[in-house]
Amino acid sequence: MLLKRLALLFALLAPALGAHANHIFIPMDNSQKECLKAYGLCYWALSKQIEIDWLLNYKGGSFACEAQPALENELNVRGITFQTISEAQYTSILQQIADPSANMDVMKLEKVPKIAVYTPKGKQPWDDAVTMVLTYAEIPYDKIYDDEVLSGVLPKYDWLHLHHEDFTGEYGKFYASYRYAPWYQQQVREAEAAAKRNNFKKVSTMKAAEAVKMQEFIAGGGFMFAMCSATDSYDIALAGLGIDMAAEMYDGDPADPAAQSKLNFNRTLAFQNFQLRTNPFEYEYSNIDMQPGERGLYEQNDYFQLFT
Known about the structure:
This protein is of the alpha/beta class and 308 residues long. It folds into 2 domains: 20-109, UreE, C-terminal domain (Alpha-Beta Plaits); 115-295, no CATH class. Helix content is 42%, strand content 12%. The strands form 2 sheets. The chain has a 5-stranded antiparallel β-sheet, sandwiched between helices. A 4-stranded parallel β-sheet has the order 7-6-8-9. Strand 2 (52-56) and strand 3 form a beta hairpin. It is elongated, with a radius of gyration of 25 Å.
């Protein structure tokens, strides 16, 4: 009888106890000793079905979740800065974020994403900052490249990351400076072999086909993040589908002199009305890429706001 009464008492008190549960708060401002490890910890937590609150714009985009012994142990093992705070303290943080003038928000993370990084198999770790960061953060990912994309693997993933890639088939436009460098020549050989292996006559047409596959991936709900040369060369490839934009040293025949007038900007994701840089010796694809001096924007005056 006593056990039954205790069980009933616990059942009645459980909601109240839960309402006062402690929270783990992971700051992401300058007080955080291991920012990258903190992202990896959140990935780990999601893989264990632990929901995470991402506090956008609050102390560097901090994270929070209900306190659990396993989570605290993992935080300590990885050397991540964190605090255990009360329910009242966390409620106060949420109230600050909810203030319309605060320019902050809360995003609940519930699902662990499957990540692919578009990178050549032979690239050294120090050549690819993305894979270095993910490895250090202990976030699992797959490396995929030409063969995998063309074979249709993208729907298996939630997130695709592009880095130093050239979807125009001009090998990064490094010809002028590096055409005699062994690494450049090896890159050309590998790309041409991949094109032949996948039944394309040119690297440029193979890369354009991959750009289309990625666009289909996005249309199907996938997330893609492009940086560096992937950003502009991707949209250039989409706008120039079926157009020879590569000079003779890149694909064996001259570029179409009317390529600019034939671009179809209805196909692009982000950029329109750009001008191609057709000089094969110039290290630039188009006028999409802007240097700080060209725009007059530097770290001191280049600001933007979220949620306004």
